[in-house]
Specification:
two-stranded parallel ribbon, single chain
């Protein structure tokens, strides 16, 4: 896992991810970088990890410091190692219900819907709220693709 800086919420989230990985018996590399790491340095690290056969997934904890482009970081990750499912190829695979890494929130949400027994999920209305970067727009598209009635409220949340 790559963490740039020391955002308290990100540190807490990384700690939870590491615990979950350990409980699942999975190995994880903890790559914590200082907040002043340059974009070029981060992209070079990702390129090295892309080429490392021992690395199967590259999660990058967001948000990144303001001087680093999240978009450039995300598209630099090999889609086959995109553990967060944010690469455009991964998002496309999710929307089309193809295999590959999927964003956790929209994927889990579409599979954990509670519903009335005997009522087809396609007949339900789904309301999705959240800013696009949270995965809400992906969840909305996935619900729409499955022919559900879906509403998306692109709420603006303060960080």
């Amino acid at each position: 896992m790559i963490l740039v800086g020391d955002d308290p919420a990100s540190l807490s989230y990384i700690t939870a991810k590491e615990k979950a990985l350990a409980e699942a018996g999975m190995k994880s590399r903890d790559l914590r970088l200082p907040a002043d790491t340059t974009e070029a340095e981060l992209l070079a690290l990702i390129c090295r990890l892309n080429g490392d056969e021992k690395v199967h997934g590259i999660p990058v904890q967001l948000p990144l410091p303001a001087h680093v482009s999240e978009e450039r970081v995300i598209v630099t990750i090999d889609p086959a190692k995109d553990a967060d499912g944010f690469h455009p190829v991964s998002v496309g695979n999710m929307v089309l219900s193809r295999s590959g890494f999927l964003p956790c929130t929209p994927h889990e949400g579409t599979h954990s819907d509670s519903h009335q027994p005997g009522r087809p999920l396609a007949t339900m209305t789904v309301t999705v709220a959240g800013p696009p970067e949270s995965g809400s727009s992906d969840w909305f598209r996935r619900c729409s693709w499955r022919r559900r009635t879906a509403r998306w409220i692109p709420a603006i949340l303060k960080r």
